[in-house]
Design brief:
Length: about 300
C-alpha cells in the first residue's frame, strides 16, 4: 500500500513538471529579419512566425538586423533587437515579477486574435487582400455602402465623428441618426464622407446606444448597414479609468511597440476604437520597419467593421 502511494505521488510530480514545461511562455507579436527557434523536440533551428508560441525550454536566435516583439502569458512585453541567442526561460524570468490582474485578460485576447502557426502574408499579398472599393455590389439593384467607422463604438467625450466610404461619381449622401426607438434625431445631406457633431448639443444621453445609417441622397436603397455608438456614462468612465490605471501600473514605464499593442487590445476590448487606433498607430511609428505590426493594425480595422462584434 505504501509503495502504491509513493508511486501515485511520483506520477503526480511528473505530471506537474511536464505540464509546466508544456505551458507556453510567450506569443510572437511581430518580427523582422531572420529569427529562429530551437525547441526541446527539434535539433535544428526553425524560422519563427508571428503568432507562434514559445515554450520554457526553447531558445531563440536573432541574426544581425533582426527584431522580435513578444508578449508573455502574463501580459508583459519584451523587444529583442540585438543579435545573439536567448533562452526563453531567462526571458520569462525577466517578465515575471509582481502579480498582474488586468494584463492576463488582455494577453488572452491577444493570443486568440494574433495569427497562430501561420506566417503572415507578404506585404503585397496582404495589401491586395485588404484592398476594397468604394462600394460592394451584392446583387442586381442592391448596393452596399461600406462604412469606415466601427460598427459599434464607445466614446469618452462628447465629440463624435462618423465616416463611410465614397461612391462612384461623388454623389450626395443622406445621414440619419436614430435612438433605440428608431426616432430620427438628426438628418443631414452632404457630399462629405464624414460627419462630426457635439453629442451634448443634440442632448444625447450617456450610457445609451444610438444608431446611424447613410444612403445615397438620390436613392434610399443604396445604403450602409446600421451601426451604433454609445457615450459612456460617468460610472463607466470611472471604472474604465481605474482599470487603465492598473494596466499602466502593471506595464510600468514600458513604451515599446509591443506595449502599445497591448494598450490597443485593451481599448478594443472596451469598444474604444478611437483610442485603439491611436495606440496601433503609435506602435507602427515606434517600429516602422516591422510590417507585422501593420498587418495586426489592418486585422484590427477589419474586426472593428465586423457586424459580429
Amino acid at each position: 500500500m505504501k509503495n502504491l502511494f509513493l508511486y501515485i505521488v511520483a506520477l503526480l510530480i511528473i505530471f506537474v513538471f511536464t505540464g509546466t514545461a508544456k505551458e507556453f511562455k510567450f506569443c510572437v507579436l511581430g518580427k523582422k529579419g531572420t529569427v529562429q527557434v530551437k525547441t526541446s523536440k527539434s535539433k535544428k533551428l526553425e524560422d519563427v512566425k508571428t503568432g507562434d508560441k514559445l515554450f520554457l525550454n526553447d531558445n531563440l536566435v536573432l541574426e544581425e538586423g533582426s527584431y522580435i516583439g513578444l508578449v508573455h502569458n502574463n501580459g508583459k512585453t519584451i523587444e529583442l533587437a540585438k543579435p545573439g541567442k536567448y533562452k526563453i526561460s531567462a526571458l520569462s524570468n525577466a517578465a515575471e515579477g509582481k502579480k498582474t490582474s488586468v494584463l492576463p485578460r488582455i494577453a488572452n485576447m491577444i493570443f486568440n486574435n494574433v495569427n497562430r502557426g501561420n506566417d503572415l502574408l507578404t506585404e503585397k499579398e496582404h495589401k491586395s487582400q485588404m484592398k476594397s472599393g468604394g462600394y460592394i455590389e451584392r446583387g442586381i439593384g442592391e448596393v452596399y455602402l461600406p462604412i469606415i467607422s466601427p460598427v459599434k463604438n464607445h466614446y469618452i467625450n462628447k465629440n463624435v465623428t462618423l465616416c463611410w466610404n465614397s461612391y462612384r461619381g461623388n454623389p450626395d449622401f443622406e445621414f440619419k441618426l436614430m435612438n433605440r426607438f428608431n426616432k430620427v434625431l438628426l438628418t443631414k445631406t452632404s457630399a462629405d464622407t464624414c460627419i462630426s457633431f457635439d453629442a451634448e448639443s443634440l442632448k444625447l444621453e450617456k450610457g445609451t446606444y444610438y444608431f446611424w445609417t447613410v444612403n445615397l441622397a438620390s436613392d434610399n436603397d443604396y445604403k450602409s448597414r446600421e451601426a451604433c455608438f454609445k457615450l459612456l456614462a460617468d460610472n463607466e468612465i470611472t471604472l474604465l479609468n481605474d482599470t487603465l490605471k492598473l494596466l499602466k501600473d502593471e506595464l510600468g514605464d514600458d513604451n515599446s511597440a509591443p506595449s502599445r499593442i497591448v494598450y490597443a487590445f485593451f481599448y478594443e476590448q472596451n469598444n474604444l476604437y478611437d483610442e485603439a487606433t491611436k495606440a496601433y498607430q503609435q506602435a507602427i511609428k515606434l517600429a516602422p520597419d516591422v510590417y507585422d505590426y501593420v498587418v495586426l493594425y489592418e486585422d484590427y480595422l477589419a474586426r472593428a467593421k465586423s457586424s459580429d462584434r
